[in-house]
Structures are given as C-alpha cells and as structure tokens.
Design brief:
It is a single chain. This protein is of the alpha+beta class and 393 residues long. Among the domains are: 2-69, no CATH class; 171-265, Thrombin, subunit H; 283-390, PDZ domain (Pdz3 Domain), CATH 2.30.42.10. 26% of the residues lie in helices and 35% in strands. It contains seven helices and 20 strands. The strands form four sheets. The protein has a six-stranded antiparallel barrel with strand order 1-2-3-6-5-4. Strands 7-8-9-12-11-10 form a six-stranded antiparallel β-barrel. Strands 14, 15, 16, 17, 18 and 19 form a six-stranded antiparallel beta sheet that branches. Helix 1 (2-14) runs antiparallel to helix 3 (35-75).
Amino acid sequence: MKKILFVIVIAFMLSGCEFFAGLTTTTRDYAQLDEEDLENIKNQVMNELRQEIQNEYAQQLTDVENMVIDAVRANADAVLGVSNFANMSGVLRESSRGSGVIYKKVENDYYVITNEHVVEGYDALSVVLADGTYMDAELVGADKMTDLAVIKFNSTLSFPVVQFGDSDELIPGQFAIAIGNPLGYDYYGSVTSGIVSGLSRNLNIDYDDDGVIDWVATLVQHDAAISPGNSGGGLFDITGKLIGINNMKIVENTVSNIGFAIPINTVKFVVEQLELEGEVRRPSLGITGIGVEDVIENNESIRAGLIPGGEIIELPNGITEGVYVSTIVDNSSSTDILQPGDIILKFNEIDIIVFEDLRSEINHSTIGDEVTLTVYRDGETIEITMVLKQRPE
C-alpha cells in the first residue's frame, strides 16, 4: 500500500499537479528532461501503479479465498451423509439420503443435526462417511414444526465438531458457504458459496395438506446452490461458524438460487429440548383469532360484495393493529382469562402488529412461563397475566 501511495505521488508530480507547483527544485530537475523522456517516465510510473493496484487487489482476493478454504477444511468432515431405511417386505432398503452436521461429542457418541423430513418414517438410520462407510445411528428426537432432528452414532474414529455462530448477527450480503450431499452420495461433501440474501423470511407451512397453516417458519434466505440431498447440511459463514441448517429451496422455472436455512439460534433452542425430552413441548395461548389488519381487509371486501354472506366484525375506532380473539379453547391458558372480542395489543411489552407476531412470541416461550398481555376490552386497555400451558395434541 505504501508503494502505491509513493507511485501516485510521483504520477502527480509528472502530471504537473498544481500541488507541486511550489517545489522549484523538482520543477528545475524535470525541466532538464525533454518531452519524450518525461512521457516515458510517466508511462513507466503509471504502469507500475497499475501493477501495484492489481497485485494489491489479487492479494485481497487470495486472502478471502483462503478464508473460504479454511472454513471448508475445518468443517467438511463434520458434515456427513444421513440415510433413511424403510422396511420393505421384511427387507431394509435405503429410501432417502440427506446430510447432517456433527455438533457435539460425548465420549464416543457423536450428535448430529439433520432435518426432520430426512429421518421421517424411518425403520433404521445410518450416517455415511466420505469413503462410503455406513454406520448405525439412532434418533434422539425430532420436531416436525421446525424440521429439525437430532441423531447420534458411536465411533472410535475422530470427527470434528462444528462451532455455532449467532444468526441474530447475520447481515445481508455476507458470505454463506453450504456443505452437503446434493443428489445423494455421488456428490458427497459438495461445497457451494453465495451470500446471505435475506433475514427472517416467513414461510407458511401446511404439513398435512388440509389447507390450514400449521406453522410459520422463519428462515434465512441465501443463494448458495443447494439441491435435494443438501437437506440437513450446514450453512457456514466465512469464519467457519455454523449459521444455519439447509432445509428447502424454491423450485420454479422462473426462480434461481433461492434457498433457505433454519437460523442457528432456532437450531440451538430446539436441539437443547430434543436432547432432554426427545421432542419440543410448546406452550399455547388457547385461542383462535385473526389479525386486526386482516379483519379490516375482510370487512372492506364484505362491504364491497366480494365475500357474499360474510360476517362483518365490528372493531373499535382507532384500533388498526393487534390480534382479534375469536374463540377460547377449553381448559387452555386463556380459559376464564381472555374473552371473545378481546384485541391483544402486546405480549410482554412486545407490540403485536399481525398474528404472526403473537405466534412468534408464544413459540419462543416455554410451558409454565408467566406472561402479561395488553388487551383492548370494552373501550379500555387492560393488562392480563396468565401462565402458559402446553399446546394440546
């Protein structure tokens, strides 16, 4: 860098920059040279300047490339294959393949994060090494809602364990490196890279195809190429820390490289419960409801005749956000506490703008938590305290 600055200074001097007009000694020395000599010197200096800039740029690119290589080297052996075997006419046959990430070791037991849909419906599980070795694995726990599962296997071999990052610190534009097994084990350990494209992307999930949204998944969007088989594989930052678990992508003719990963902070929260309980026990508020914004939109559509036979829900003047409580579930957290017609405005001082805000706050709470709701009822705003109970099956 110092050499570049020096060459720039010389270039300015040779170009007759006014900044050097007062340097009579320099001016007198150069005056002794003819115009052709000056032009040759200037060209030589400019060539050196260009070369130095190219070298500096190339070094910076090399530094970034080395960081990516180091991140892959540190984690490649921690990303394994995960095979699901189904019993077919009394014979175990491999029914699907995915990826998994080693995140913990206890003595000779290795714990692996993968996707729930990778192990769903299994009769037997194996982890698969790069050399094609299959090793028996067992399920520790699985959570369909977040599409996460933990399996473990026992081995005297030595495997690396990944380091968790912090998905709350992610910034759009930062590097994202995906490691996994796209299309099965013929492409075992494939590495692709891109950037974090977006944060907190909410995708509606209907697990049983009954037309009712069962879960709103909040995911990290990235453009590192992923394919079937990458499911359960790791998404890493340029320092080699795990920032997400790849689980889905948008597949359309008009779409390219829109992939999603489960944020690592969600993974940490779920994995801890899977290790302890084998499942995630979630609390429930015990209501059915609709976002106030949706109520307003529906009312306008009904008045315009777009929803024949629709029932208008009367809202108080000035209330444009929150969640309108439609019904109360029996023997739930809200029984004898909330009432139909209540409008939930805050959850533990967190503003509730749309229904997804309330869902998110509940999903990040635990059974037995005491929470305070700010509720609009009968013309006034009140605070209500309740203890969250388990979500009914």
